[in-house]
Structure formats: C-alpha cells, structure tokens
Amino acid sequence: MMNKAIRHSLLGGLLALGLGGMSLPVAAGGGSEISEAPYNEIQLNPISMREAETLVGQPGVYFFDVNTLEIWADGFIPGAVFFNVQNWRELLPKNKDAVMVFYCANRLCTASNMAARETMKLGYTGVRHMADGIFGWRMSGRTTEKP
C-alpha cells in the first residue's frame, strides 16, 4: 500500500505526462483508497443560472434542492422543494415532461447529479442540472427564500 504523498505524486506525474495517449479509467478518492470512478450512461442536461432564473415561478417548472437540511435552511431558490428525503419519488410531478431543475451546493457536490440521473431513469424528460448550485446562486446576488 502506497502512502498518500507518493500516490498523489505518482498521479500528478501521470497527469503531467499526458499518459502517453493511453486511455485509463478515471480514478476517484475522497480520503480513502483510490478506486475507479463510476461511469454514467445517462448524460445530464445542464442549465445556467441565467436560464434557470428565467424559469423561477413559471407554471409547470419545478426546482429541487438536493442539499443538506443545514444548507437548505440558509436559503434556497424561490419555490424550490427540499429533495434530500427518503420519499423523494413522491415529490416528482405526474407530468413526465415537466421541466425540473436540480441543484445542490456547488460544482463539487454530486447529490444533484445523482438525483437528476435517478429521476431520468424513471422516464422524466425535462430534467435539467444547475451545477453552480445554491452557493453560485447566492454569490451572484440572486434572490433566495428561507423556510
């Protein structure tokens, strides 16, 4: 087993070399042993904050906040529904073509990616993903609500 410093140095060196044109699986860490990152067949449909802002309050458009309860309590996109619950399927609209915007904290958060993909697996076609999340929304000075 390699120690972390050697492992990070080795990975950095491989990345700097461009891997010599070789195709290797993507690796993910997270504080534990590095393992192959999962590949998702379902591609997300991104939405910018600017476009999402034009959809706030529109009929038939749903915003789903997939953050922790603590982040949710600090403010969310107006009209958004807290989605980080066990019975999340019950929150989905009956219309499978409805526009739904999923977001979490920021681009490093993957909870909204997973929620959006799981919703798409259920046959929903209007699923959008806002990668900048609530932190990007707040930092840009856009309006938020609190519970």
UniProtKB/TrEMBL annotation:
Taxonomically, the superkingdom here is Bacteria
Q: Which UniProt keywords apply?
A: Signal
- InterPro entries the record matches: Rhodanese-like_dom, Rhodanese-like_dom_sf
* Residues annotated as signal peptide: 1-28
PROSITE patterns given in the database record: RHODANESE_3
Return the Pfam families for the record.
Rhodanese
Query: Zinc-finger as a keyword?
Result: no
Q: What positions does the domain Rhodanese occupy? A: 57-146
Name it: Rhodanese-like domain-containing protein
Q: Which organism is it from?
A: Shewanella mangrovisoli
